[in-house]
Design goal:
Layout (H helix, E strand, L loop, with lengths): L19 H32 L8 H27 L10 H32 L4 H4 L2 H18 L3 H4 E6 L2 E6 L4 H44 L12 H36 L6 H19 L1 H8 L1 H11 L1 H34 L1
Antiparallel strand pairs: 1-2
Helix pairs in contact: 1-2, 1-9, 1-10, 1-11, 2-3, 2-5, 3-5, 3-7, 3-8, 7-8, 8-9, 8-10, 10-11
Length: 355
């Protein structure tokens, strides 16, 4: 979002380009965005391949995570196009690509957010209502939910295809909203804020504490069950591994999205109630928190590898199979060479005795 700021009621200049902290954060964004995009696109591509492998795609949460990886790739691709515009590669201001970028960014952001909400809800069911797991947490249900989410996103977010275009601003061609649709887009933007920011965030703030409480209660029940046993099982059950991974996805999402959401809500409230422009600090913090927000699309693979034990096994088997085969061949060849060497040494020793 570009800010065009004036002098506010206190007389303080609020043009962000004049503030050193703001300029520093913008430069940091310019450096970090391509790194985030490249790492995120590669990581999410590898993760999607693992989640869609034969051994994982039979689990509902893996289908959700696979689609989330694909939507993250779409979002990062559109973000990279914006970065190219920032470094004066103006393909963003091409008719057709302009509309496609806005359309793609809206849909992918919507899907990524709501898939995390769905994953969090499924995790809540797995922990607190295990009797419903066989009904709700199934691949068939996941496919239906995914189709519904994609369909709804296509229906609601098709408006950039006909409201966005190349607009002449001060002699420069920019990708923006056509003048005749500005009021419509303003209303739809506020609706989008509720759909992708306020509603999901409130749901997450409710579900994550409930999951934490349910997990602690389940742990206490497990301790009581094993209190009189000679020893507890050392390994985690598959269900525990799944809930651990899903909980990590939810917590990372909240940690990286909360700062940006908080500042956006504050700016909206200030604009409506006080009718003043944002301060240096608000605009600078928003730019800083945008980096945190983008990081959520980049760090997914690391989260899956750290907290997903089964995912790690499948990932290693899928992408490092050739390395494992080569190591196995080297091990076999080494064993053969050692055996042959021992045989030859033994043969030489016997020959010496005969002589």
């Amino acid at each position: 979002m570009n800010y065009s700021l004036e002098v506010n009621s206190s007389g303080m200049l609020t043009e962000p380009s004049e503030d050193k902290a703001y300029v520093t954060i913008r430069r940091l964004q310019t450096v970090m965005i391509p790194i985030i995009c490249i790492i995120g696109i590669v990581g999410n591509t590898l993760a999607a391949g693992a989640f869609l492998s034969a051994s994982l795609r039979t689990t509902s949460c893996c289908l959700y995570l696979a689609v989330k990886c694909l939507s993250d790739i779409g979002f990062l691709s559109s973000l990279f196009i914006v970065w190219l515009y920032r470094v004066h590669v103006p393909i963003f201001n091409t008719n057709g690509l302009c509309q496609l970028y806005v359309f793609l960014s809206y849909i992918c952001a919507f899907l990524s957010v709501w898939l995390v909400v769905i994953i969090t809800f499924e995790n809540f069911i797995r922990i607190s209502q295990p009797q419903w797991v066989g009904i709700i947490c199934t691949p068939r249900t996941a496919k239906i939910v995914i189709v519904v989410c994609v369909t709804l996103s296509l229906i609601f977010y098709n408006y950039p295809l006909w409201t966005a275009g190349i607009v002449n601003v001060d002699g420069s061609a920019l990708c923006s909203t056509r003048e005749q649709f500005q009021n419509v887009v303003m209303v739809l933007t506020y609706v989008d804020t509720f759909l992708t920011l306020i509603i999901p965030f409130v749901i997450m703030l409710i579900l994550v504490p409930l999951i934490t409480i349910a997990a602690l209660q389940a742990y206490e029940r497990k301790k009581r069950l094993f209190r009189n046993a000679r020893r507890e099982s050392k390994g985690s059950s598959p269900e525990t591994q799944v809930t651990k991974l899903l909980f990590a996805v939810s917590v990372v999402f909240l940690a990286l999205h909360t700062p940006g959401h908080a500042i956006r809500v504050k700016l909206m409230i200030v604009k409506f109630l006080q009718h003043v422009s944002p301060s240096y600090l608000d605009v600078t913090l928003q730019r800083l928190f945008e980096i945190f927000y983008y990081m959520d699309f980049c760090l997914s693979l690391a989260v899956y590898l750290i907290f997903g034990a089964n995912f790690r096994k499948v990932f290693a088997a899928l992408y490092f199979k050739r390395c494992q085969q080569q190591n196995e061949l080297r091990r076999i060849q080494t064993n053969v060479n050692n055996t042959v060497s021992k045989y030859l040494l033994k043969g030489n020793g016997e020959s010496g005795v005969v002589v």
